[in-house]
């Protein structure tokens, strides 16, 4: 199993909306590195859901329910989507400020490549964020 973090502006697509829908298509990604990360996701992989711009915090866990296929929202180009399902909210949202202040998380793409919307995490990074929420 692999671990990931996806970012979305909560006024565009929030964890609340994912929970309400029960399943969401992660579409609209127009960055090659993020697209390649989508293509590397496998069914069952665990994903942290991060609210960007508003809140700037990890708020929940979702899971890859369907591996990549062509993005139906793309008018041109070679873009992909995956489908995710909500797993659960984390007990306490973890802010970007907390992540930046945690030495074990110093190398995650959320800090190093802040514009990247889909990024890999190590199992240790994933678990560290979950432990911080308790």
From TrEMBL:
Transmembrane segments: none
Top-level taxon in the UniProt lineage: Bacteria
InterPro entries the UniProt entry points to: 5hmC_binding, EVE_domain, PUA-like_sf, THYN1-like_EVE
Limits of the EVE domain: 2-132
Name under which the protein is recorded: Uncharacterized protein family UPF0310
Organism for this UniProt entry: Haliscomenobacter hydrossis (strain ATCC 27775 / DSM 1100 / LMG 10767 / O)
Origin organism lineage: Bacteria, Pseudomonadati, Bacteroidota, Saprospiria, Saprospirales
């Amino acid at each position: 199993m692999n671990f990931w973090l996806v970012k979305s502006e909560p006024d565009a697509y929030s964890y609340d909306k994912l929970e309400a829908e029960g399943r969401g298509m992660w579409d609209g990604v127009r960055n090659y590195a993020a697209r390649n990360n989508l293509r590397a996701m496998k069914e069952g992989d665990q994903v942290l859901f991060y609210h960007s711009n508003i809140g700037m915090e990890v708020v929940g866990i979702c899971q890859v329910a369907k591996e990549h296929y062509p993005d139906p929202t793309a008018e041109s180009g070679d873009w992909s989507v995956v489908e995710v399902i909500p797993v659960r909210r984390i007990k306490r949202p973890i802010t970007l400020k907390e992540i930046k202040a945690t030495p074990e998380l110093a190398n995650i793409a959320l800090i190093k490549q802040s514009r990247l919307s889909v990024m890999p995490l190590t199992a240790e990074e994933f678990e560290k964020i979950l432990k911080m929420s308790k």
